Amino acid sequence: MDKIREIALKTLYKINEQEAYSNIVLKEFLKEKRNKLDDRDVGLISEIVYGVTTWKLTLDEIIKKYSKIRLKKISPWILNILRMGIYQIVFLDKIPKSAAVNESVNLAKRYGHKSSSNFVNAILRKVNDNDYKELFNIKDDVERISKTTSMPIWIVERLLEENTIEQVEEICNASNIRPKVTVRVNRLKIKKEVLERLLKERNIEYTQGTMDDFLILNKVKNIENLDLFKNGYFTVQDEGAGIIALVLDVKEEEKILDACSSPGGKTTYMAELMKNNGEIHAWDLYKHRVGLVEENAERLGINIIKAKCEDASIYKEEYKEKFDKILLDVPCLGIGVLKRKPDIKWKRKEEDIKEITQIQKKILETCSKYLRKGGQLVYSTCSIFKEENEDIIEKFLEKNKEFEYSKIVGENYKYFTKSQKNQAILNLIPNKESDGFFICKLQKK
Question: Which residues are catalytic?
Answer without folding.
Answer: 382
